[in-house]
Design goal:
The protein has 127 residues and is mostly helical. The chain contains four helices and no strands.
């Protein structure tokens, strides 16, 4: 039992070291973007992209990283299963929303005008 605990601690500390390394690589690539501002912008952007890729690779080597990538792959699969509305349905719903917003705006304006009239009548202000 204690051997499993020691292995878990070792893997946990290794995962922590890998996470810190991934963060350091990511921060280093971002800092490098600003430090080497005399270099061409394309080179600097490619350096950041390479830093993000290396950082993601290092992150994937940890248990937390694998669980995050697993979660993202499941989310991507769920997005593919969504039945998206057609263009016609989207346009119709957008028009319905606009009409309802205009109607509700007019309704609330009328309610506001009524309350303004009632308050003026009760307080003796106005005409």
């Amino acid at each position: 039992m204690s051997k499993q605990i020691e292995e878990h601690r070792a893997s946990s500390s290794a995962d922590t070291a890998k996470l810190l390394l991934a963060i350091a690589v990511l921060i280093g690539s971002l800092v490098g973007y600003y430090v080497y501002e005399e270099a061409h912008a394309v080179v600097r952007v490619l350096g950041v992209i390479a830093g993000v890729a290396v950082s993601a690779f290092i992150l994937y080597q940890t248990a937390i990283g694998r669980s995050w990538f697993n979660y993202l792959s499941h989310a991507k699969r769920e997005v593919r299963q969504v039945v998206w509305p057609t263009r016609q349905e989207t346009v119709q719903m957008t028009l319905i929303v606009f009409v309802v917003v205009i109607i509700m705006g007019i309704f609330f304006w009328l309610v506001d005008m009524f309350f303004l009239w009632a308050v003026q009548l009760l307080t003796g202000q106005g005409g």
